[in-house]
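in:
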């Protein structure tokens, strides 16, 4: 009987240890997420899905279009398939989730489903996430280093100069709703039509 108890104890220990290794241990690599002129950093979990994303990002940044879904996430197709490590998860604002192997979801509210955890945005509140992600469709860029906006030097101009520039430094005639732009040396967001 002691031998059976000992064997059961070892089996449980090995199973529990293996199960804990599947939990979200952080990777040392940081992910940079740029959306509407705001860049967030994220800590990735240590699983084959996050590692495959890092490997893809070592080749080039990934830019994808995301849309609102269910009033709790921005989701979009990454254009390539990554391995999955699905588990039942209840998300929190800031969670990065891989869904069906090719969709990246950035959560700004709570949801419970079976999908793959990739990581979590560092130190961002729900309000900050909602403000940056905006309403409607948005372009999101993932990279392993911070992407510069293209504006290296801002020179002041007279207050009567109402020229507008996008974040890449190109002059624009008008800003679209939700667009971040520079006017009179100040960063602005167009809120309404």
């Amino acid at each position: 009987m002691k031998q059976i108890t000992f064997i059961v104890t070892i089996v449980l220990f090995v199973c529990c240890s293996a199960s804990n290794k599947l939990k979200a241990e952080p990777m040392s690599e940081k992910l940079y997420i740029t959306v509407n002129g705001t860049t967030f950093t994220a800590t990735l979990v240590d699983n084959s899905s996050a590692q495959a994303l890092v490997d893809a990002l070592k080749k080039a940044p990934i830019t994808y279009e995301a849309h609102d879904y269910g009033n709790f996430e921005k989701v979009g197709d990454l254009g390539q398939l990554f391995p999955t490590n699905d588990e039942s998860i209840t998300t929190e604002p800031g969670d990065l989730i891989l869904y069906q192997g090719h969709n990246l979801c950035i959560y700004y509210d709570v949801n419970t489903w079976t999908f793959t955890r990739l990581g979590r945005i560092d130190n961002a509140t729900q309000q900050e996430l909602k403000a940056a992600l905006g309403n409607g469709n948005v372009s999101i860029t993932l990279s392993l280093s911070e992407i510069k906006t293209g504006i290296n030097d801002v020179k002041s101009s007279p207050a009567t100069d109402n020229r507008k520039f996008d974040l890449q430094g190109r002059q624009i005639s008008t800003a679209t709703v939700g667009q971040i732009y520079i006017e009179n040396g100040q960063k602005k967001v167009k809120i309404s039509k």
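note: Helices lie at 2-21, 48-59, 126-133.
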